[in-house]
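Technical annex B. To support the medicinal chemistry partners, we prepared a structural model of the target in complex with magnesium ion, based solely on the information shown next.
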Amino acid sequence: MRSHYSGEITPGLDGKSVTISGWVHEIRDMGKLKFVILRDRGGFIQITAKKGVTPDEVLSAIDDLSKESVIRVEGSVIRNDKAPKGVEIKPEKLEVISKAASPLPLDVTQKVDADLDTRLNNRFMDIRKPDISSIFRLRGEILSAGRKFLKENNFIEIHTPKIIASASEGGTELFPISYFDREAFLAQSPQLYKQMMMATGLDRVYEITTYFRAEEHDTRRHLNEATAIDMEMAFIKDDGDVMDVLENLVLALIKKASSCENELDILKKKINVPERIERIEYDDVLKLLREHGKKLPWGEDLDTESEKLLGKIMLKEFGSELYFIVHFPLAIKPFYTMPFKGEKYSRSFDLGYKGVEIASGGQRIHDLELLSKRIKHFNLNPDNFEFYLKAFRYGMPPHGGFGLGIDRVMMQILDLSIREVVLFPRDRHRLTP
Ligand code: 4AD
Ligand code: MG
């Protein structure tokens, strides 16, 4: 339905016949001259109609146009220094393919600001705005870069079930569903299944997946449906091997984002690409926080306030936007986490980016006896985990992995809230669109 995208039409095409299709962004009627700005995926192009030159049926079609209708225009390219980008279209035929009703639920030209709720309620139209669509073009680029990196590092893309029978990340955050006559849940993570893959010999696997979490909080960093790159690798020495992969992956994602010049220009953003990622012990994090007036008792996980403060400290004192917090207390990490220095610490880590956790991971327990003991320690019923424990009975190599939140990566790269970087966010109040 088109010979060119608007972005491909340059003054160099002067005199050439073209067909363009897209949405009516603006209409300006100056009496003898009528301008229509057509918008498509590639940008904008001006269509200039003149009384006495343009066919009458085209002129009257323009008079009847409504903003955001879908049109198809045939015409010739005219070089014109006064037109945007020095070029415009002289229309010979204009066809309305789909007429838009008015008034519009949202102003795509952004002359009138809309609040986030109105935008999300009319998301299909919100994404017509070039800056908003840039967010999702950038997101697509980052995901492709992630896949490319993982493939180059020998990881196999897999899919694990999203309907599950037991929790992996603690029992409170599950969405129950009705599964015939049995109890089932939406998967909060591929954790148990990706670990089971380590007993198959596939060795290195990853999944780009949705997490379902029935968390009650209503924050700018939590959703009830989140997306992550989840990976697991076998034959590791310890959690350090896993961090090495995560470090290189995250740097590759940020580097990719920084190379999306067109999108960043439209979004008016600049991205800093760090060279490496700092690694600090949990105990040292508590010390740093204490020096800055925040007393977090040993054994507690970082709350939002501590995370934010740590982000500021890391930037000011280490010049780091990205940092690993390593060796958390064992008690606050899930049952599958490998203990470290007796049972006090664990071979686990979180990855922080400008004051927000973007990933968690670590080395897992591969010894069946220890794993069963840890399951009981958390007052979980080992019978519910028999399908998982079985994979540890017949040869399980040392392994580890991580979950890297894509929504979190996106929000931190662009300094936006999580709802802005997800197409159709799911939170406590939002189930549609
Ligand atoms: O920290 P989480 O819960 O860790 C796990 O799921 C482990 N199974 C990972 C592992 O391999 N050991 O989730 C991992 C990441 C978080 O760091 C965060 O980026 C994202 O997933 N995430 C969420 N993002 C938005 N909203 C939520 N409710 C999220 N829950 C987790
Ligand atoms: Mg975590």
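Notes passed to the chemistry partners:
The mean pLDDT is 96.
The pocket of magnesium ion (ligand 2) is lined by residues 350, 357, 360 (CB under 6 Å).
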